[in-house]
Prior knowledge:
- There is one protein chain.
- The chain is about 35% helix and about 20% strand.
- By secondary structure, the protein is of the alpha/beta class.
- The chain has a single domain, classed as Rossmann fold (3-Layer(aba) Sandwich).
- The chain has a 10-stranded mixed beta sheet with strand order 1-10-9-8-7-5-6-2-3-4, sandwiched between helices.
- α10 (about 260-270) links the parallel β8 and β9 (about 280-285).
Amino acid sequence: MQSQKSGLRVGVSAMSPRDGVDMTRSGVSRRAALRVLASATSVLALEGCAALSANAPTYDAAALSSNPTLLVATTRKSVNGARERPWFGTERAGRTTFARARLVPPDDSRFSLASMGLDDWRLGSVETVGTVADLVGQSPTRDVLLYVHGFNQTFETTALDAAHLSYGIRFSGETMIFSWPSRAKLLDYGYDRESAMWSRDALQEVFSGLIATPAVGRVHIVAHSIGTMLTLEALRQIYDLHGGVVVEKIGAVVFASPDIDVDVFSSSVQRIGPIAGKITVITATNDRALAVSSWIAGGTKRVGAAEKAQLERLGLRVIDASAQGWGLINHDLFLSNAKIRQVVRAAIDGRPVGGA
């Protein structure tokens, strides 16, 4: 595939991707319906993407296939002691809760609903534990994929998005979510931004706990939308506290559709030392959610909709996914688009994408 045909533009500097949905056993989610269309679209797209896929390794089965369990850290207040759905709500808790969330995978048999895109992952149960170390236990050393969600998400949609991401890239380690108290309403953007930043100390403590746990190898981070602002601030704080000691334990850092002011982002990147060299930014100039965010913020450009060259000057790897978005919003391409998921996997593996 020639790069101009793929629509995926990759850059590396010279210095070195929604709505909250109610997932039920009888219902079909918006994303499940989209995946029916996306499956057909991906087949056509990937037929013209031989060069991108030809160099991709054969992955082992995702760890979620054999052990469909997510690790959880959340600053949401629990509902009914987290014993039943919705487990955690939209209010802010006094302390961080750690838990294991048991998933119910879709039936993957040949003639199942899942084969037609009409079945999905479901969240079955949640069991709270004491600390990060209790989550990981004394198992053999494994990498952790930590997902930090964006605006307008429930605890359940966050868990299911993390499952889709981890399974989609065939991640072989533990998958974890950090779920901050989004109100999960379209018109509560301001509350969500404040709740995200309110959670930065808790996320920093999660980073510290993971890094200090011997059973954890590297911590790979995928943050979306407002979650990138929270994640960048927590990374800055942990680097200020521990310096280069943390760098070796931090793996890939993927910022998908970052909803953060370009100037604020630039300043923070300069304060996280070598961690900045681990960042991959997925942008789309036609991201309409970020266009609204920019308008709310008085017209300031958001990183996820910035021009590639502007971000490359910070020494970052930048993936321009503008041509990959076939929807109306184009804000969650890292979940909905197969080629963008390959970008996430390549970042975790430390491989270049598309010859970059």
